[in-house]
Amino acid sequence: MLDVRHGDGTYVRARSETEGVIVRRAALAPLLDVVTVRRGLEVEAARQAAERRTEQDLADLTALSRSPDAGSLDQRVERAVRFHSALVDASHNPLLSELYRAMTESIARGIQQATADPEPADVGTASHEDLLAAIAAHDPDAAAATAARHLAALITQIREQLQAR
Description:
single chain; mainly alpha; Four Helix Bundle (Hemerythrin (Met), subunit A); 7 helices; about 70% helix; globular
């Protein structure tokens, strides 16, 4: 469950012992490690969502993809996390959803850090429409490829930030 603390961030409340362990472990991991694990989870989630999604899943994802770049950085990060969490849930794979939920706080931290810029930043939502289209079309290969591209851009951005330090 997400606990949004405006001005402080988005946090995850553990629902199980396993989730609690993963939350604590992910919080200690370097950002690049978190994002590469996220990529693995989301690419497979996108593939499964394209195969298994319901019309309600599609409606939820569509609603969450509206106005992705409006509002404060915290609001945009929160919307991005909700979109990606709904994507993972649309896989209808309970274990994948639990693993992803456990990492949500670290994922939100990663998005926040990667987009911490004085100018309003796109939190990676430009490709949400392409991802949504692939899922709607029941195209698992396109969904997985789109998710991989979406996160490759974030990984590149994080690597550039780390090299600049």
